[in-house]
Amino acid sequence: MIDDDRIRPRLVLATTLLPDGEAGETALREALDAGDVASVLIDPADRQPGPFQDFAERLVPVIQAAGAAAIVAGDTRCAGRVRADGFHDPSGSVPALREAVGRFAPRLIVGASGFTTRHDALEAGECMPDYLFFGKLGADAAPEPLRRNLELAEWWASIVEIPCIVQGGSDLASLPAAVATRAEFIALSSAVFADLALAGERVRAAERLIDAAMEEAAA
Fold first, then answer.
1. 8 A C-beta contact, residue 79 and residue 87
2. In the chain, which stretches have pLDDT less than 50?
3. 90-122 pLDDT per residue, tens
4. Which helix (H) or strand (E) holds 54?
5. Nearest one of 148, 177, 175, 150 to 165, comparing CA atoms
6. Can you tell me the distance from the alpha carbon of 154 to that of 172, in angstroms, rounded to the nearest whole number?
7. E strand or H helix that includes residue 80
8. Which residue, 38, 40, 46, 200, is most buried by CB atoms nearer than 10 A?
9. Record's InterPro entries (predicted)?
C-alpha cells in the first residue's frame, strides 16, 4: 500500500539525445506510449534556431497527442511558433525568469533551471514559475544523479509548494534515489534515449522501478 502522504513522481523526458528526423520521432513516440510521461523538454542541443524550430515543430504534435506537455527550452520565439505548451528558461537568471513569467504565464507553462543554491532557488521561486528543475539539460551522463540536485530537490519538496523536477542519472537503477527526494517529477534523457530502439522498454522499466521504490517507502 502506498503512503497517501507521498506523491508518486511522474516522468519528464528531455530530447537532448534525439536526432532529427524519423528515428528521433519514432523513439519519442514509443517512449510516450510506454508510461506516464507528464511533459517533454525539447532541448536545442546545439541546434541553430532554424533547425531547432523544425525539430520542435515535428515533435510538439507527437507530444501533445500523447497527452503530455511540450515545453521548449531556451527559445521563446520557437515556443510560440510551434504552439508549445510551455517555455523552459535554462539560464539560471532570476531577472530572465521573472520576465518570462510576466510575458507568458498563465498562457504557457513557465519553468526554469540553473539555480544551484538554496538562496538562488528561493529567489527564483519568488517569480512564481510553474516548476523549478534541479539539473541541467544534457548533464545526465553519469549513472547516478548529481548529489547536489538530489539534495536541492529534497529540500525544495519539503518546504515549497511549487513543484520541482529532479534530474535522474543515466542508469535506471539509480531511480530510487530520485524518488526518495519526493520531487513531483523526475527528468530522464540518456537513461531512455541512449539506445533509441529501447526507448519504450526503458520507460516501462522506469515506471516499474518508481512503483517499487514507492512501495518500499510505504512498507
1. yes
2. 1-3
3. 999 999 999 999 999 999 999 999 999 999 999
4. helix 49-65
5. 150
6. 19
7. helix 76-81
8. 40
9. Aldolase_TIM, ThiamineP_synth_sf, ThiamineP_synth_TenI
